[in-house]
Amino acid sequence: MARILRGDILWADLNPVKGHEQAGLRPVLILSPEIFNERSGTVIAMALTSQPQRAGFPLTLEISSCSLPKTTWVKISQIRTISVERLGKGLGHVSDDEMSQIVEGLNEIIGEGTPGYRR
Prior knowledge:
The protein is 18% helix and 36% strand. By secondary structure, the protein is an alpha+beta fold.
């Protein structure tokens, strides 16, 4: 498989799943850096969806920096570590600015920098 870079959007087979996890063959956004992806045989990824989202930022963010066939949102709350064997064809790559926004959203969800967060 070709190099897998942070910010890549690739098809992934997310089955099997449980509960409210995103399922099926769907695009994912790669969060983990290339060296992690190469050495671990896994990637850290967020599910994407073309279904309009009721929840806004920080739970979701519309992807606008790369041209995808449909309007697409990254589900920042749907983060998974998956095997590179689950990955397929590439669809694009998000900009560094958009990647920074996504990481900012993740930090808000997990409490880093949020009022009321305790170490």
